[in-house]
Write the structure tokens for this entry.
Amino acid sequence: MDLTWVEAYRRAEDRGALTVRPGERLLAGGTWLFSEPQPEVTGLVDLTAMGWAPWELLPDGGLRLAATCTVEQARRAPWPSPALAELCADALLMSFKVQSAATVGGNVCLGLPAGAMISLTAALAGEAVIWTPGGGERRAPVAAFVRGAGVVDLGPGEVLRAVELPGSALRARTAFRRASLTAHGRSAALVIGRREPDAVVLTVTASVPRPVVLVLPPASPAHAVRRAVAEAGAEVGWYADPHGAADWRAAQTGLLATEVHAELSEVAA
Ligand SMILES: Cc1cc2nc3c(=O)[nH]c(=O)nc-3n(C[C@H](O)[C@H](O)[C@H](O)COP(=O)(O)OP(=O)(O)OC[C@H]3O[C@@H](n4cnc5c(N)ncnc54)[C@H](O)[C@@H]3O)c2cc1C
């Protein structure tokens, strides 16, 4: 949609240009920004002009995804095993046109429960690299960076620069389950498991307002997995919207979590 209140557009080509003025908003892929009225926005600052490489390899075999890396570029990054990235990209249920514009950073900064780039990066122990005003940088785990539905840990003038995924997490075995009210509907519950040497790490998104990470022994029986998920979900509150009621999401999440845990407890780390 046209943003009829916007009077100015500028390309940010260096870090100094990222300082937003009153009324300005950072623009990444624009797939959300242009999807609804933004009456308070009078100017756009285009982050994609920074020219960041979509991804870089880290010395430990990990990946650094630039905030401006598109969902399409992310699925083609050199993952040791690309299946999880592809499943998460597909969980967004966007057309290929939207996937080639929507960015990892835009998805993470929106902080929506169904943000599948949040699911992917939180499940792989991702760390958000945040540029602070004045030239500094700070870091936060993605699972903590997203604080609630649409609420993220970004202060005034801060910009998400990248998300770093450690090599150990990328090499780990993973399992993925997703539930939705309809075959092509938005994610209502999404559970990703990662096998660590002595634990199964479950990351729950979509059914909760912010990512929930549970570290469980591989030998946990199904009832213990269900109980741990139920308690963690009750603590943050089960999310409800037109894509699913809270009690249904809670039940689905418990089921998916036991499946993911069972799949990963059977394999060696
Ligand atoms: C058909 C369709 C389906 C969709 N399905 C889903 C879905 O299932 N789940 C979901 O979560 N979303 C969905 N969306 C919403 C949206 O497209 C995605 O979340 C997308 O990843 C947003 O990325 P973007 O680059 O387009 O962000 P933009 O629209 O450019 O920006 C989004 C917000 O993040 C801010 N921002 C962007 N980058 C940064 C940064 N680096 N630092 C600080 N702030 C930043 C912007 O200022 C803006 O407020 C869908 C959209 C469409 C059109």
Q: What stands out?
A: The chain has three domains: 8-50, 55-168, 172-265.
